[in-house]
Design brief:
The protein has about 180 residues and is mainly α. The chain folds into two domains: about 60 residues, no CATH class; about 110 residues, no CATH class. The chain is about 55% helix and about 0% strand. It is built from seven helices and no strands. Helix 2 crosses helix 3 and helix 5 crosses helix 6. The longest helix has 20 residues. It is elongated and about 85 Å long.
């Protein structure tokens, strides 16, 4: 089990935990006692009681994991991300942000993710952070290159050679 910066259970551990909850749900349907289920599944009685309340409220499906997106959900999310943020109402030219992806996941699947959780989800599926290059619309690339090649070397000047010195105003360097 991972904690703090690790972010909780791994996907394999989540699936194992879900199997335990579903086994408990099947035993609730058979009428087994809370203590017997807790002992057999090696979990606490309070956890089994919590699962039983959830099971009563929503049957076996309520015990399923609400965790990471399924493969079908991920494909749908990826398709929606491919359509771009403008298609989803964000037309300010900033592109996708983690907060926007979080909002999109909530709209599409009614799931709540944290912003860091969205970052981990995207990274796990091979997405990376993209920072747009910020340039003026009026930029003249040829003029910029001329300035870099001809003007900047004159402005910059040559570097001083190394010599012992001091940054102090009261104590000048020797030499």
């Amino acid at each position: 089990m991972r904690y703090a910066q690790g972010g909780g259970l791994t996907p394999q551990e989540q699936q194992a935990r879900e199997r335990i909850r579903l086994e408990a749900g099947a035993r609730f349907a058979r009428g087994d006692t809370t203590a017997a289920i807790a002992t057999d599944l090696r979990v606490g009685t309070r956890q089994v009681e919590k699962w039983r309340r959830t099971w009563r409220a929503g049957c076996l499906d309520a015990l399923r994991s609400k965790g990471p997106l399924s493969a079908d959900q991920w494909q749908r999310l990826e398709a929606e991300l491919g359509r771009g943020p403008v298609a989803h109402g964000w037309d300010d030219g900033r592109g996708w942000t983690l907060l926007r992806v979080k909002t999109l996941i909530g709209r599409l699947f009614h799931l709540g993710y944290t912003v860091p959780g969205v970052g981990e989800l995207l990274h796990r599926h091979g997405w990376s952070v993209q920072q747009p290059v910020r340039r003026a619309l009026e930029r003249d690339t040829a003029a910029v290159q001329v300035w870099k090649d001809e003007v900047w070397p004159q402005v910059q000047g040559s570097r001083r050679t190394w010599a012992p010195g001091s940054v102090s105003r009261t104590r000048r360097g020797r030499g």
